[in-house]
């Protein structure tokens, strides 16, 4: 599990491409190295990856076909930078919201509004069906960052970013057209799906109650 509070950024220093498979090596900040071991989980742009090799501060991770298909990690090249978060411990402060590191879709940055101490970024989901889980003032994970949803339209949503977030994460360098990883808040997803299921059952029961008297006649 993760908290959505990015602990640092890491540069991709090497990439090995194979058929529908990729291994990339990042240079982790020194502060994130203590206790790191093979098999540990580390979120890259919000996507949970497993440590496969450690060589000093150079740490390797494997990306399988599904990861490359769903996330933006397959678009990255040597020299690019990713948001990094080590897996949460039970004693950690949860300053964001609980996240699994399982990316559901990506979103394209479609508008950026800059003011003196604030940046408003609008996103359009690649999978429009997921918009039902994006609620005003709800939680969303964007490239591994726990953020509060601002305005929501039928097809787009925005977040408001303070200078600290822009400085500590990769969002400060994002431009129009860039893709970001999206993790939907699982609690929101569960509530929306439950309500939809209950309403569907209610509609089905109401329809049956109208049909049955006719059948009896």
Summed up:
The protein has 217 residues and is an alpha+beta fold. It has helices spanning 65-70, 163-168, 186-216; strands at residues 8-18, 21-27, 41-44, 47-55, 58-63, 81-86, 105-114, 119-125, 139-142, 145-152, 156-161, 179-184. Pathway: Cofactor biosynthesis; riboflavin biosynthesis; riboflavin from 2-hydroxy-3-oxobutyl phosphate and 5-amino-6-(D-ribitylamino)uracil: step 2/2.
Describe the largest sheet: 6 strands, antiparallel, barrel
- Secondary-structure element series: EEEEEHEEEEEEHEH
Q: Stretches where pLDDT falls below 50 for ≥5 residues?
A: none
Give the integer mean of the pLDDT values.
92
Strand content: 35-45%
Strand tally, please?
12
Radius of gyration: 21 Å
The number of domains? 2
Under the CATH scheme, the architecture of the largest domain is Beta Barrel
In whole angstroms, how far apart are the ends? Answer: 58 Å
CATH topology of the largest domain: Elongation Factor Tu (Ef-tu), domain 3
Walk me through the structure:
This protein is an alpha+beta fold and 217 residues long. The protein has two domains: 8-86, Elongation Factor Tu (Ef-tu), domain 3, CATH 2.40.30.20; 105-192, Elongation Factor Tu (Ef-tu), domain 3 (Beta Barrel), CATH 2.40.30. It is 20% helix and 39% strand. It has helices at residues 65-70, 163-168, 186-216; strands spanning 8-18, 21-27, 41-44, 47-55, 58-63, 81-86, 105-114, 119-125, 139-142, 145-152, 156-161, 179-184. A hairpin with a 2-residue loop joins strand 3 (41-44) and strand 4. The model has no long low-confidence stretch (mean pLDDT 92).
């Amino acid at each position: 599990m993760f908290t959505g509070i990015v602990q640092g950024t890491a540069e991709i220093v090497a990439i090995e491409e194979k058929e529908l498979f990729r291994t990339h090596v990042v240079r982790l900040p020194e502060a994130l190295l203590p206790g790191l071991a093979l098999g540990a989980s580390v979120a890259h742009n919000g996507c949970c990856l497993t440590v496969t090799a450690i060589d000093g501060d150079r740490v390797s991770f494997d990306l399988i076909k599904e990861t490359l298909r769903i996330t933006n990690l397959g678009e990255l090249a040597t020299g690019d930078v990713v948001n990094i978060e080590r897996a949460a411990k039970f004693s950690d402060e949860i300053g964001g919201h609980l996240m699994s590191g399982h990316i559901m879709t990506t979103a394209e940055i479609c508008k950026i509004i800059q003011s003196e101490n604030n940046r408003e970024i609008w996103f359009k989901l690649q999978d429009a069906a997921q918009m039902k889980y994006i609620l005003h003032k709800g939680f969303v994970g964007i490239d591994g960052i726990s953020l509060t949803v601002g305005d929501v339209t039928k097809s787009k949503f925005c977040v408001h970013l303070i200078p600290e977030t822009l400085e500590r994460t990769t969002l400060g360098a994002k431009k129009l057209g860039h893709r970001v990883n999206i993790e939907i808040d699982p609690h929101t997803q569960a509530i929306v799906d439950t309500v939809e299921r209950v309403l569907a059952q209610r509609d089905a029961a109401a329809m049956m109650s109208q049909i049955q008297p006719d059948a009896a006649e």
